[in-house]
Design brief:
Elements: H1 12-15, H2 20-36, H3 40-55, E1 59-65, E2 71-78, H4 92-101, E3 105-107, H5 119-123, E4 128-136, E5 139-148, H6 157-200, H7 208-221, E6 227-230, H8 237-247, E7 255-259, H9 265-273, E8 274-275, E9 287-288, H10 290-293, E10 298-302, H11 309-321, E11 323-325, E12 332-334, E13 338-343, H12 347-352, H13 358-364, E14 367-370, H14 380-395, H15 405-413, H16 419-433, H17 447-455, H18 463-483, H19 488-495, H20 499-508
Parallel strand pairs: 6-13, 6-14, 7-10, 10-13
Antiparallel strand pairs: 1-2, 1-5, 3-4, 4-5, 8-9, 11-12
Helix pairs in contact: 2-3, 2-6, 3-6, 7-8, 14-16, 18-19, 19-20
The structure holds adenosine-5'-diphosphate and magnesium ion.
The site of magnesium ion has 3 residues, from helix 8.
Length: 518
Amino acid sequence: MDDRPPEELPDQDLLHLPTDRQDLETLYRLANVVHSFQELQPLLENLVDLAIRHVNAERGVIFLRDARGDLYPTAARSLYPSELVDAQKVALTVVQSAVRAKESVLASNLQTDPRFNSESAIHYNILSVVCMPLLRGDNVIGAFYLDHGKRPGAFTERDHNFLKAFCELAGSAIEAAVERERYQIENRYLRQVVATEADFSEIVTNSQQVISILETVDLVASSNVSVLITGESGTGKELIARAIHFKSPRREKKFVAQNCASIPETLLESELFGYKKGSYTGATHDKPGLFEVASGGTLFLDEIGDLSLSSQAKILRSLQEGEIKRIGDNTPIKVDVRVLSATNKDLLDQIRKGLFREDLFYRLNVVTLKLPPLRERREDIPLLARHYMGLFCSRMGKRFAGFDSEAIEILSSYAWPGNVRQLKNEMERLAILLNEGELVASVNLAETIQQAALLKPPEAGTSKMKEGLEAIQRKMVVEALQKYRWNKTQAASDLGITRRGLIKMIERYGLDRRRKPR
Ligand SMILES: Nc1ncnc2c1ncn2[C@@H]1O[C@H](COP(=O)(O)OP(=O)(O)O)[C@@H](O)[C@H]1O
Ligand SMILES: [Mg+2]
């Protein structure tokens, strides 16, 4: 292309008169570009170059939409290869108008064009402009912008029509490349997830209680005994069940988990035992149940404390006989499953109340593993917190620097009603918010966790001791507030606590400026 400064260019009419032949040549090149460049950025740059040359524009920019739907310049090129284009210094009003109206725009002198009143035209010295929205169906995926700063009327109606057709074709290639890129990013993330999945099934602990559970897991894994795993929600019951399966000779076959609490009785039974076509409305084909699917492997029945008595009877019969019958079918099917089960209910209590069958209990409960809640093994908290922060950060491509000491202290003293599951979720949240390389501080922790630390009663204190301490605390707060005439920032700093901490105490002790404190 011509690389000389514009003043030396020959007269515009001689320079730029596309012919049918040139149109065909450009379309041929377009087909080539679309085929040769699969990646988005090089594709866009080649498309801009091609259009610039065809209509002899000075500059060209392709805008695309970002995830939020805002337009941003992706490829900006100049007729003169050595010149860098600042994509901010183009006539954005024209681009926005083309996108909004879903109509292309041709202006032969933008500086005097009454439609636009474009300040940037004068500022950045822009005369001729042509801009096409990139449409896919009814959606605008971006815009193709070309301008010329030296010549008014640089683009003709003929150019305009050609460019519209050009953008039709270019648009679908761009859309495909955008899709491909999005897919690649997603794919890369999923690969990460898959690659780290093994790490996520690792059992991390420093607790003597859990270590001895793991020793029992090793002992029972090789046999076929039924194991009942108890413990609060989120303590790792399913994780232990999986560990038993994957350490057992059944590991090559399936591990199938069914939550017995989450679905109604009839649905649960059709899940577990399967059904024959036509056995009820909607049973349009035969379906094997989970007992069959897990045959040779392990069936994990979660939340068995919530089984109805009738389901309990059916499960017991299947276990005793080693065979099941699909609903609506009388033919017995042999199954070979190892059953592991879990509950956070007290089954002995359920038996006493007549809600759980004693015979099923003894069938399921050959070995019991009782997982302690996290608050009873606080030594695991920093360990698990660091473990999961490390994993989530690396999945997100961030470096994890650690926790500051106050944050670790608060995490370690928190009660974790949701146990490891809650801790893991909190770590994921922190990892998302974390700035690369920064320590996690106490202010980053979830509000509820911070508040709990504030309100936490002194550990192991008798209630008398607690009351005494609270009285002292209240007195100190009242005095500090009076001293600083309820300036909370100063009072908090005097007390050596955070302002938010002070506000919590004011609420807790029901203090009010207008009322004289007791
Ligand atoms: N000791 C542990 N080490 C690592 N992760 C754990 C541990 N205990 C539980 N988890 C994780 O916590 C989450 C909840 O565990 P899960 O087995 O589903 O609990 P439950 O079945 O008792 O509700 C899972 O993501 C699990 O991987
Ligand atoms: Mg569970």
